[in-house]
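The following block was generated as part of the benchmark described in Methods. Ligand: flavin mononucleotide.
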Amino acid sequence: MDGIAKPVIAIVDDDRRVRESLESLIESAGFTARVFSLAEDFLQGGLMAGTSCLITDVRMPGMGGLDLQRRVRLERPELPVIFITGHHEDEVERCALAQGAAFFIYKPFDAGELLGAIMAANSERAKLAGKSKKPVLLKIAPDLSFRQIDSVLQVIAEFGLNGIVATNTTLARPDSFANCPEAGGLSGRPLQRRATQIIRYISGATAGKLPIIGVGGIHDAESAGEKMDAGATLVQVYTGMIYGGPFFAHELAVALAERQRR
Ligand SMILES: Cc1cc2nc3c(=O)[nH]c(=O)nc-3n(C[C@H](O)[C@H](O)[C@H](O)COP(=O)(O)O)c2cc1C
């Protein structure tokens, strides 16, 4: 999964908190995010040709969102542009939509609203390009409660996402890591049990209908098989590969196929 080229979504907003939260949301929805604090930086960054969708603020120092949209239209008229703004200005909204904006969203917005806009822009792009839609999977943290996972599953169903990746690294410090002072996400074996628990929960909650990519602490065929037994459709490895080396994925695939035949 990590090696597949993901659609790039560019974010232009002068508010650092908005940039950071959008970047994290967009990355967790399976896209690659590229953030810019100024419209000029996006235009001069040489990224326009490879961008699948542009999300921009309206009011920014230097060039504003409407001028940015005009510049983008000259080079990439088919590029979906989504506006986000904290100011209610009907005239600006009318103008952006008349210039072909895909969506005009007011801050604060919730994750579902933005995800819906991105999915719709992505479908529109596929239709214009005459290609099939890119599958979009949402990756979740293992630190969510089952109740929170239920709301994620609702969002996935509502927006027709194609699957879920469970799980990312954990912020918890389980077992012998209880007193570990370092900040950041923990991967590998300490995550194995919780990730499997979450996969089993999702599989049960969706009656096995939602494709699940199981990840977290897979280090051999048994731990990969544990994820499959819990309901995973595919498995992904990260830390196992770091410790196991470049042939780990091949050896694991062979051993897992053998295990599943038994
Ligand atoms: C150094 C590092 C960087 C990671 N970067 C990403 C990332 O950019 N996107 C992502 O979805 N997951 C990322 N992950 C999470 C892994 O893909 C994986 O979900 C997690 O590490 C659990 O699997 P593991 O126990 O096999 O490592 C990263 C993990 C590590 C350790």
